[in-house]
Specification:
Elements (H helix, E strand, L loop, with lengths): L1 H24 L1 H8 L1 E6 L8 E2 L6 E2 L1 H13 L2 E6 L5 H6 L5 E3 L6 H6 L1 E2 L5 E10 L14 E5 L5 H6 L4 E5 L2 H10 L4 E5 H10 L6 E2 L6 E6 L2 E2 L4 H17 L1 H8 L6 H9 L6
Parallel strand pairs: 1-4, 1-5, 8-9, 8-10
Antiparallel strand pairs: 2-3, 6-13, 7-10, 7-11, 7-12
Length: 275
């Protein structure tokens, strides 16, 4: 009787596992059947995602990447604005099919989500502070109030490695507003948008990025739900083709995102014109 019960239990587990795999792999079919891919994007500012003041439409590198994915899949694009606190939940709850939302690859995220193996770039944290703050290196953040976005992978090293007093806020706009208002002494976010901010916006002329090296630079990848191998493989082919056509580097430059050594390495792995 016990052996029979165990056999039924194992059988039920196998059925559930098979059902889970079937459900996970159905995403690509759903995208094609409805004729739309839904991408979760962050619109926190140039160069990755923002609202173009002229067109009032989403623009930036991640929007260009999402549009290319839709075009290459032969479907329309729908974008859903996400924030650092809710982006993982939106993906897990199937509110979006994929994330292009300023999420770099790390072990903690890879435990709960799937991702496209070929990165489309990399990013590290930049620290923005008022000129004359005395912060010249990451060690100088010790004991200072440093604002980050909730869910940021920069929070852990700032707290554990450099002893900062880390304050999590809903997103980059709120963090920068807190910095400007004096609620925090520095803010740490992906460095590319911060460099554009101090270079282009007169309102930030009293601020600087005094630390030359980025905090924990990591690969930028497209995120999908765990186990979605069909979707993952289809998107990986698209990313590799971005390199082989030279489109990714051109689009990265167009959006004023720095061409990093890591991006150059990936471009060399998939040379323009290769198959």
């Amino acid at each position: 009787m016990k052996a029979q019960h165990t056999s039924r239990y194992l059988g039920a587990l196998l059925i559930l596992a098979a059902a889970g795999l079937a459900h996970a792999d159905a995403t690509l079919d759903r995208i094609k059947s409805r004729g739309t891919v839904v991408a979760g994007v962050i619109l926190s500012g140039p160069p990755f995602g923002y609202i173009d003041p002229k067109t009032q439409q989403p623009a930036g590198l991640n929007i260009d990447l999402a549009n290319s994915i839709a075009q290459r899949l032969g479907v329309k694009l729908e974008t859903v604005t996400v924030t650092p606190p809710n982006r993982v939940q939106f993906l897990q709850q199937s509110k979006v099919d994929l994330l292009l939302a300023n999420m770099q690859l790390n072990a903690e995220r890879a435990e709960i989500l799937g991702y496209v193996p070929t990165p489309y770039g990399d990013a590290g944290g930049g620290l923005i502070t008022r000129k004359g703050s005395g912060i010249k290196k990451w060690e100088d953040a010790k004991g200072k109030v440093v604002c980050v976005s909730q869910g940021s992978n920069y929070a852990k090293p700032l707290l554990e490695q450099y002893g900062a007093n880390v304050k999590g806020l809903p997103g980059q706009p709120e963090s920068l507003l807190a910095l400007k208002g004096g609620s925090c002494q520095a803010s740490v976010h992906d460095s590319a948008p911060l460099h554009l901010l101090v270079a282009d916006n007169p309102e930030w002329k009293e601020f600087e990025l005094p630390i030359a090296n980025d905090l924990i630079p990591l690969p930028s990848v497209i995120w999908v739900r765990k186990g979605e191998t069909d979707t993952q493989n289809a998107l990986d082919k698209i990313v590799q083709d971005w390199y082989r056509t030279g489109w990714l580097v051109e689009t990265t430059k167009k959006n004023r995102v720095p061409i990093t050594p890591e991006l150059t390495k990936w471009q060399a792995k998939y040379p323009v014109g290769s198959k």
